[in-house]
Amino acid sequence: MTGPAVADGGLAGHLDGFVRAIREAGIPVGISQAVDAAEILTVVDLLDREQLRHGLAAVLLQRAAQRPTYDVLFDLWWPLSDRPRTTVESDADGDADGEPGESTLDVPGDDGIDLAARMREQLLQLLLEGNPEALRRFAREAVEMLGRGQPSPSGQSFFSYRVLRALSPDTLVAQLLTGLLAEGDRGGLAEQVARQTIRERLTALRAAIESEVRRRTAAEKGRDKVAKNAVRPLADQVDFLRAQAGDLAELRRAVAPLARRLAVRLSARRRLGREGRLDFRKTVRASLGTGGVPVVTHHRPRKVHKPELVVLCDVSGSVAGFSHFTLMLTQALREHFTGVRAFAFVDTTDEVTRFFRPGADVVDAVSRIGREADVVGFDGHSDYGTAFEVFADRWASAVGPKTSLLVLGDGRTNYRQPGLPVLADLVRRSRSAHWLNPEPQRLWGSGDSAANRYGEVIDMVECRNAAQLAEFVTTL
Amino acid sequence: MARPPSQFPQFSSVADVSKRLSTAGYLPDAQIATTVFLADRLGKPLLVEGPAGTGKTELAKALATATGSELIRLQCYEGLDEARALYEWNYKKQLLRIQASQGTDGADWDTVHDDIFGEEFLLSRPLLTAIRRAEPTVLLIDETDKADVEVEGLLLEVLSDFQVTIPELGTITAARRPMVVLTSNATRELSEALKRRCLYLALDYPSAEREREIVLSRVPDLAPGLAEQLVRTVRAMRALELKKSPSISETLDWAQTLLELGLDTLDESAVRSTLGVVLKHASDQDRAAAELRLN
């Protein structure tokens, strides 16, 4: 490896270990990037940790979603030292950090509860000021003083839940609101804005505490162990079925552009052979400029045939997380693509296109489907057979030779009849048909899943996360 | 893999980047400044990715101003081809030249041939223009993700060697490497190969402090307290699930609007009457009004 001339196992070896850890976390790093990373070390100011962080990120990462994972690993591999920094610390708020621990702990007769109470006060102040640097320093101090677990033979452990329990920052919200708002501001815009600000600062505090706990644990027990547990899956690899509220927001960001791409793809065929019939008149007109030689030919634009897309989605409880995504996808498709008709089903089918008119809000649409659409006919367990039959019956004309059919669901039939012939017929009548299944492929066909049997009559694709959706869209 | 040393680095340090970009009206954070510095030092293209309105194009413009370079912009779109990105021959002019030669003494074909594939008949498009310039240049390839995959192949060739081969003229190599900034909204994953050749900078909305500074530097007449209030309100809006989150430029527009209207506090009625400046969808406006309790 080219790079700074450091003895083997020195800086270059350390960088190599870091790159390996990043690869293990699922971020692909090629050899040339690793070489570039070594070159970065020669250019940045190594004493400036943030420069190093951003510099390495610039060559090692290729997507924004990889950044949180990278930051966690960076903190483990290039940790802050344990010593309080002696430079630049003696400024205005030096007393917040100057001698962490000792001064507070030395007070005679001090016990844990008293300490926690005093730290809470300090925290309240810091949250009101909202200086991120001060907040991070406070988090380090808090972990040192409040986060210790029982010492064990394997070393000292630190726990973020201990810190959070002692400080219980969530109970400070009321006081923070009072602090941030003048009287009379309550109930309106000012309060909502202040709440958001508080939410942001609390999130930052929690992240700082967690990162400090990781750092200390890594120092005690070795960073490889921590790295394995600390790294959360990348946002586009989060399972649709297991996504939590926080992930959903991330997912939405990832899915919106994909849906748009998908819409374009499904209608893309017409783009091939861009030039239509020769526009004789226009070509002759244009040739006058070149002495009658038709250098540039003009063509009539092709008739754009409006492709149609029919989305059929399972919105039953078993795919709750997925159906949220499904409807998100439907909404996005609907917006970019005029000929979309959406149908939702549980044990019977209803057209839900009307809830997704352009400009409508997804969250709102989802709740309206729950209330107003007629998707539950019997007991609220999915019944694909009946759903397909109802669909084929009532909207017989929806699927035709110009239609792309997209089915979204897990294919779990509750041991009811799967309605294969009906589906096969729909597939035959459509121009193209795909089924996106949020379950891992190895579970297809297990239990009440009819996925394998459906797979025989329709092109079924595993689509558990945004990364797979992206792949489906690009290979389409 | 020896890469020719980057010629003429423009910046002496990360701090220098910060200072000069700030002077050019762009306040970079540590990440932006570091990455720009490295792109300059290593002579690599800089790929800036992020949601619309986080200042990607602005960065390129500020970079041109800060280094006293000319900005050459290639706007990508679906269907962009070599002729639009690189160069094409001016057929009409070539044809006229041929016809003119027929009329007179009838110069022999070889002369005419050499003649019509000369500089005079070459229409230089952004990529070629940027490569041929001897003066400092910033080449902005905007919205790279909008272009077709074939264009990426073309970019790969141009960006790795900074040379273009024109069959009739031979290979043209950059006299002086332009600084290249590619931007992308990430609506499509760019190819691995392209990403590998670039330094990657993911831009997100700025932190509250930085955004406040941006507002104050661009709209200096705004009262600091109001700027703080404004930025916090915009951030609260970004936290909502909107179809189009307010961008930095919309924050600035809003600041300007408040100034023009002479409002000195951002209360419900002020927000309600100026909401159209920040939120451009009716559904977003309804949602913000409901969640932020404007009524």
From TrEMBL, chain A:
InterPro entries: UCP010256, Uncharacterised_CoxE, vWFA_dom_sf. Residues 90-100 have a biased composition (Acidic residues). Residues 86-109 are annotated as: Disordered. It holds the Pfam family VWA_CoxE. PANTHER family: BLL5662 PROTEIN-RELATED (PTHR39338), BLR6139 PROTEIN (PTHR39338:SF5). This is VWA domain containing CoxE-like protein. It comes from Blastococcus colisei. The lineage of its organism: Bacteria, Bacillati, Actinomycetota, Actinomycetes, Geodermatophilales.
TrEMBL record, chain B:
GO terms for molecular function: ATP binding; ATP hydrolysis activity. Pfam families: AAA_5 (PF07728). Residues 42-209 form the AAA+ ATPase domain. CDD domains: AAA. It comes from the Bacteria. InterPro entries: AAA+_ATPase, ATPase_dyneun-rel_AAA, CbbQ/NirQ/NorQ/GpvN, P-loop_NTPase. PANTHER family: MAGNESIUM-CHELATASE SUBUNIT CHLD, MOXR FAMILY PROTEIN. This is MoxR-like ATPase. It comes from Blastococcus colisei. The lineage of its organism: Bacteria, Bacillati, Actinomycetota, Actinomycetes, Geodermatophilales.
